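Before the break, one more example. Copy the sequence into your notebook; we will annotate it together after we see the structure.
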Amino acid sequence: MNISKKEQRTLHVLARGGVIVVEKDERGKIIAVNCVSPEGWSLADCTLGIFRRLKRRGLIASSGGRPYQITYAGRIAVRPQLDNRA
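Here is what the structure looks like once it is written out:
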């Protein structure tokens, strides 16, 4: 699967335990996203377009009204990095 550098960065943050918090309008449509790392930092590369691509591919998901997290398919798709190793 071809994944851009910005998508990779977002998936790396999510793989380390980060989440994507969404902001919705009164109709329930997503208007803004914020990717937060486990340390509390915000990722500037995570835009609404990146969020929609990751969601469409099934690499991120939300359950029970919680923030979006990486799925099993997302963990397989992300390339390994030194900071992701335990």
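The first strand starts at residue 19 and ends at 24. DSSP finds three helices and five strands in the chain. Try to locate both features in your own notes.
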